[in-house]
Amino acid sequence: MYVEIVPNRGSRPAVLLREGWREGNKVRKRTLANLSDWPTARIEALRAALKGRSVAGRLEDAFDVVRTRPHGHVVAVLGTLRRLGIEPLLDKRRCAERNGAVAMIVARVLDPSSKLATVRALRAETKLSTLGEQLHVETADEDELYEAMDWLLPRQRRIEDALAKRHLGDGTLALYDLTSTYFEGRTCPLAKLGHNRDGKKGKLQIVFGLLCDGQGRPVAVEVFEGNTGDPKTVASQVQKLRGRFGLNRVVLVGDRGMLTSARIREDLASEEGIAWITALRAPAIRNLVKGGSLQLSLFDTRDMGEISDPAYPDERLMVCRNPLLAEQRARKRKELLDATEREGRSGAGSLQDEEALPARDRGRDLPVRA
């Protein structure tokens, strides 16, 4: 920041507090405040402070602090977003909808909250940072943010295609996983009762799957009905990778609950150029141990190895031992055993207390824990 004095024809010169930065070979600047009404001594004190020189008297006396707003974290996130080229990816033309969408992205990183809370943080009267004024959305309300989301919807396919072109290529890894969120209201056609992940029993929910590149950078998202099982979403992702994104060879990575044996057999194995990485379920691992393909003594000298088994022809089976996970499970097992023992002692004591009562009072208003 710096103080600039601008001649104003026959009137007093304008004294402006400005910010300057460089974009390529061009120098940009913008006015932050008009200081024309300040006395000369105060202007000179502020100019000296901005240049790092000593100021006669206290710096606080050089200006009046009317209000302060956090700014650094906004510059960091918004600057990173712009270096990644997110704004032109949404739309090449600057408009209120694009500014609203970018504001929601930045706000989600800085302080995840509802649309109502986001609007309060942007408005001039209640803003919590400079984000609103940086994107000129200080007057936006929650309806305008929802309209910006509606504006994004028809652009989703183009945005995803651009991200896939940027981050995916032949032979690449594609990470895929699902989650769900509960839904308030009954107007969403996708909201259904299904496998609950939020602990909100009896609530309708929607399921959405996120497709990322090997570094975990989001490429595409798809929303499913709330009662859709994870494995049933795999086929659409394969079609997306092969059909829309034009990948001839790709390795799909998913968890054991999604890339099941049936899905591998029906959706992946029949597709030329599609490979996969997933994990076996506990019963399948036990079968490997019983059949002798996996010998636990292997882990006496190493933590990882490759094995083969007739049940998995043309597949590589990598086995590993995670000492941290083993320690965690041993600790949890001990805690469960200790809790069971305490419950057992408490239940035995309750039964003994009841047996000491007269026969007519046994079982009356006495909680028996077993």
Describe the structure.
It is a single chain. By secondary structure, the chain is of the alpha+beta class. It folds into five domains: about 1-60, no CATH class; about 70-155; about 170-275, Nucleotidyltransferase, domain 5, CATH 3.30.420; about 280-320, no CATH class; about 325-360. About 40% of the residues lie in helices and about 20% in strands. It has helices at about 40-50, 70-85, 85-90, 95-110, 115-120, 130-135, 140-150, 155-165, 235-245, 260-270, 280-290, 325-355; strands at about 1-10, 10-25, 25-35, 170-185, 205-215, 220-225, 250-255, 275, 305, 315-320. A five-stranded mixed beta sheet has the order 6-5-4-7-8. Strands 1-2-3 form a three-stranded antiparallel beta sheet. A two-stranded antiparallel sheet has the order 9-10. Strand 2 (about 10-25) and strand 3 (about 25-35) form a beta hairpin. Helix 2 (about 70-85) packs across helix 4 (about 95-110) and helix 4 crosses helix 7. The longest helix is centred in the last third of the chain and has 33 residues, at about 325-355. It is elongated, with a radius of gyration of 31 Å. It starts with a strand and ends in a 15-residue tail after the last helix.
